[in-house]
């Protein structure tokens, strides 16, 4: 059974999310369940679209310590399927979306699943004075 596509292209909000995800070392996009998934190696770190009713939502794997605080914030919700494994979701189609915060959530999720060599690349890129690094 083929899943219906959740997004119609072009989609400006999805394109912006895509740019954030694909900026990470060796990140790739794979269509699964009718939605874009972003992977580090073979492991998913972001899925776009928690459900057909909420297509413009970021499904991500939070840091376990941060998760406790995030679930107290009304903007975050527990997505179907991924939720029981500790994943959370956040809508990203609002003009009030904080894209800096969203990028931090994406990076944290990536760090939960990335291979060691990918983390080394990311940390080099993030190092003060490194090309593109700002942290």
Automatic annotation (TrEMBL):
GO terms for molecular function: DNA binding. InterPro entries: YjbR-like_sf, YjbR/MT2646/Rv2570-like. Gene3D superfamilies: 3.90.1150.30. Keywords: DNA-binding. Signal peptide: none annotated. It comes from the Bacteria. It holds the Pfam family YjbR. The keyword Ribosomal protein does not apply. This is MmcQ/YjbR family DNA-binding protein.
């Amino acid at each position: 059974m083929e899943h219906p596509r959740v997004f119609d292209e072009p989609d400006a909000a999805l394109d912006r999310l895509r740019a954030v995800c694909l900026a990470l070392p060796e990140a790739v996009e794979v269509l699964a369940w009718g939605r874009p998934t972003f992977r580090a190696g073979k492991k998913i770190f972001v899925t776009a679209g928690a459900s057909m009713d909420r297509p413009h939502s970021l499904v991500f794997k939070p840091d376990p310590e941060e998760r406790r605080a995030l679930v107290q914030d009304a903007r975050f919700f527990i997505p179907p399927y991924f939720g029981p494994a500790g994943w959370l979701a956040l809508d990203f189609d609002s003009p009030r979306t904080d894209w800096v915060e969203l990028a931090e959530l994406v990076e944290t999720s990536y760090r939960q699943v990335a291979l060691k060599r990918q983390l080394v690349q990311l940390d080099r890129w993030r190092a003060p004075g490194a090309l593109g690094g700002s942290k």
